[in-house]
Specification:
By secondary structure, the protein is mainly alpha-helical. It has one domain (3-66, 73-149): Ferritin (Up-down Bundle). It has helices at residues 3-27, 32-63, 81-112, 116-149. Helix 1 packs antiparallel against helix 3 (81-112), helix 2 (32-63) packs antiparallel against helix 4 and helix 3 packs antiparallel against helix 4. The longest helix has 34 residues, at 116-149.
Amino acid sequence: MHLGHYLRLLHTAQCDLAGGLRAVADGHADDADILHLCHKLAGQCDAHAEQLAPHADRYAEEAGDAPDALHSDIFGGPRSGGLGLLRDLQDLYVMAAEVDIVWTLVGQAAQGVRDEELFSVVTACEGETAMQMKWLRTRLKQAAPQALIVA
């Protein structure tokens, strides 16, 4: 069974997203909404990873060795300026999209193995991830005209 691999992937992706959100918050601290909301969303990611950890540990024994390059790095660190903010938000959106699709896949597997406890975690966390993506998309739309039109 490979569910353990995807649980580890999801755990790592949540931790990376939390770190990326904090880096963007601190790198763009002059934007109050970025500072406060990114820190709030990072806290949600931390909580997701914490809720997921026992399930990842439980399924790890059955997973065996992980395939090479199961995880990829997307975010390289915060950039400066309006265009930098746009790229940072875009990177965060891609990271959140990875988390979102892996929640979906893990949810399907949880149903397949009839793990109601894991499915309950997926259901709760998947909804918050969807809201994170909506906020990121909205903030990208807000930042795009200024960053792409005004030099």
